[in-house]
Amino acid sequence: MRTVIYVLLATAILLAYPLAGQGAAAALPAAGLHETLLSGGDWKLGSFEFGEGERRAAFQASFDDSGFRPAQVPGEVQLQLGLKGMDRYYQSKTLSLVNQKEWWYRKHFVVAKEDAGKLLRLKFEGGDYFVTVWLNGEKLGEHEGGSASFWFDVSSKLKYSNENYLAVKVTCPWVPEGRAFTEYLKGSFGLTIPGSVLKFPTLPYFLGPKWDGVPGYGNAVFPMGLYRDVKLVTSLPEVITDLFVWTKAFNADGSATLRISGKILNARPQETSATLDLEIVPETFSGEPIALPKQFLDLQPGETNFDTEVVAKKAHLWWTWDLGRPDLYKLKAVISPQSAGGTVSREAVFGIRTISRNPDMSYWLNGKRLFLKGAWYPMGDYYGSLPTRQIYEKDLIYYQAANLNHIVNHTVVEKPEFYDLCDRLGILVIVQMPFNQFGPLEVLGPSNPRKDIFVKNALRQVDDIVTEHRNHPSIMEWAPLAEAHEKTGGGWGVGTASFSNYDYDSFVQAIGKLVEKLGGHRGDGHRGWLSRAFQCPDGIRFRVWQRFSARDGKPAEGISAARLVVDRE
């Protein structure tokens, strides 16, 4: 027997839910790490024709930027130019031509003399899309993407007790030079629909996006800029750069075996020794801390990996809000280098849970069958700098009030606050990675000379995104493609369109292997699970962002609500 459930958003019900709890554990030593916020209103912003900024040496401290305008960072160029209201979205010459130039951010700042000899990292929480950075006239490097943070070691490049000059060039052209348009990892902002966009036999293959989710059918808004905070992070030369906790197994006595891994960067030119202390404390409930045995590490120059296991007795599990409490823990890691008189710590909030999907498409959370009730979360805002924790919280509580226990995070990697709130509210998230919804298309064709370059860069961006967010228990799946799927009889496509000429199989498999590796397991559903596509066998059809028929999963006319069709047990 089949049951049809119509999923509708609540608009007037607001449910209160506890977002934090008090832990009873004693804190470990202080962080030994300091962040100086370089964001603010003292930046300057100017533009040039492509290539002209470097020719005019806009990266030099002596460059005359008196013609630049003041700019608030973080923010997109479109907002920093003063566009307001619907002028930010409606097609206009001013808005469209933003992406036809390169934009330069400039700022100067002072670093204290006392920080000499420490590790100082210039960190960008988010830059969209092609970013090149100079400090005191010296090029630090380049970064491509808009969904993950990146940083540069500037310890030896700073002028202590003197002015330091930072210059950042950002570009995001409608037609990227020498590459395909669908190489962009900008989610639906780079949407290219096969058959509805003018296609060329050579690069860039397509001219611009076509997405009806924004005014101008996607041809007006193409966000770009330093849209998240810029920081100067000061610490000892030894610093923890990654912490990851995943649930390895549940045990018969009610305990859980956890696997802990991490990375320590030794920025010194020589080997040093350090001790590592790990402690797990409750984050959202009261309980006793779990102290792990002290580890003694030899740190070679560069990165050193560490891993260990611990058994959490009477484990408090993370549940969706409709099945139980979404309890969270916090891992505190402290390193004490023998070569320095101090410590540096890092923390990671995590949940103890497993999630799996059986061949019959049933989902199981912590061994208990889970009935998924979900909807599409398009994005917090067209401009990623604007959503606040309060905005996210309001959105998610409304979703919860609509009786939903999961959402589809549609091709836009939101701020960390979004996923933290999903953790604390007990809402599962399927993260659609920021590829074109239909996949890279011609980029994976046999004639594209940049195919291998694209795949390498795409995997690097996927690595960054997953590593940055993999501790969130709310994230249940990583989906590389939002619309393209494996067709019956083999091959890939959408509807009647076939992508058989494109090497989607090896591309998706490469992402799957990477996600499984970063998830720390075999890919059997504990965490970091890759969803090849959101297609289900007969008996279950799940599409909440499109209208699909109950019988065959094809688009249907006249269906005004998202539908979830399941076989009754």
What does the model show?
This protein is mainly β. It has three domains: 2-16 and 355-567, TIM Barrel (Alpha-Beta Barrel); 34-232, Galactose-binding domain-like (Jelly Rolls); 236-350, Immunoglobulin-like. It contains seven helices and 31 strands. Strands 4-3-5-10-7-8 form a six-stranded antiparallel beta sheet, with no helix packed on it. Strands 14, 15, 16, 18 and 19 form a five-stranded antiparallel beta sheet that branches. Strands 2-11-6-9 form a four-stranded antiparallel beta sheet, with no helix packed on it. Helix 4 runs parallel beside helix 5 (416-425) and helix 6 (451-469) packs parallel to helix 7 (504-519). The radius of gyration is 24 Å and the shape is globular. The N and C termini lie close together (8 Å). Residues 1-30 and 521-569 have low confidence and may be disordered.
Distance between the termini: 8 Å
Largest sheet: 6 strands, antiparallel
Radius of gyration (CA) equals 24 Å
| Text of the CATH class of the largest domain | Alpha Beta
Flag low-confidence runs: 1-30, 521-569
By DSSP (H or I, 4+ residues per run), the number of helices equals 7
Mean pLDDT value: 85
Q: Beta-strand percentage?
A: 25-35%
Would you tell me which CATH topology of the largest domain applies?
Answer: TIM Barrel
Compute the number of structural domains.
3
What is the molecular shape?
A: globular
Return the structural class: mainly beta
In the sheet with the most strands, the strands line up as: 4-3-5-10-7-8
